[in-house]
What does this fold into?
Amino acid sequence: MNKDVIIACDFNSKEDLIAFLDKFQEEKPFLKIGMELFYAEGPAIVKEVKERGHKIFLDLKLHDIPNTVKKAISVLSHLDVDLTNIHAAGTIAMMEAALEGFTKADGTRGQLIAVTQLTSTSEERMKSDLLIEAGLEETVMHYAKNAKVAKLDGIVCSPWEARKVKDVCGEDFLTITPGVRFADGDAGDQVRIATPEKARELGSDYIVVGRPITQAADPVAAYRRCMKEFLG
Ligand code: C5P
It folds into this structure.
C-alpha cells in the first residue's frame, strides 16, 4: 500500500488549476478533482491533468438507483482515474452495481471508496432530518462494513476514525482522510483535525489536503512539508 498526500484542487476554473500546477516543476502530486471543477470544465479537465502525469481522485460522490450509478460510473471508468467515490447510503446493492460498472471489459479498474456520513451532518441532524436513531459513530462503522461487504476498497473518514475502521474492516481496507492541518496552521472550517504526522500514526492511507497547500504562500514548500510529515 502506497501512502500518499492528495491535494484537494478546489478551484473553479481550469486557468486557476493550471496556474497552481505550473508551480510544481519537480513533483507530480496526486490530485483531487471535485464537483465544482468537473461540472465547470467537464471530463476534458481530467484528461488534461492525467496527460500532465498526475494521479487523480475524482470526487463526485455518486448516489442514485443502482442501475443509474452503474451506467454513470461506467462512463467515468474510461477516464482512467485512480480513485473515485460513491455514497454508502445508496445501499450495498448500489455499491455492488457501482463496482461492476467501474470495472472495465479487460477486468481492470481504479480504486472505489465510499462516503459514509458527511462530516457536515451532525448526530442531531441525522436523527431529526434523516430519522436515523443509531449514533453517528455507529452509523459510520455500519456503512464502512457495508462498503466492505460490497467489496469496495475503502472509505472516506476522519483520521480519528481510521484506526477503528481498520480494526473492523481489516488493514487493507483504505482510509482516505480529509481534515488535515499543520500544527502551526489555521483550522479554518474543519473541526476534528489532525496533523499529517498524527494522521499517519492513526492509520490513514491517503490524506486529502486542500487549503494548507493551495492557499500557502509557497504551495510547493507546503506540499513537501506535508509529504515529509506524513510519510515520516
Ligand atoms: O481545504 P481543506 O484541507 O479543508 O480541504 C479538504 C477537502 O476534503 C475539501 O475538498 C473537502 O470538500 C473534502 N472533504 C472534507 N471532509 C469530508 C469529505 C471531503 O473536508 N468528510
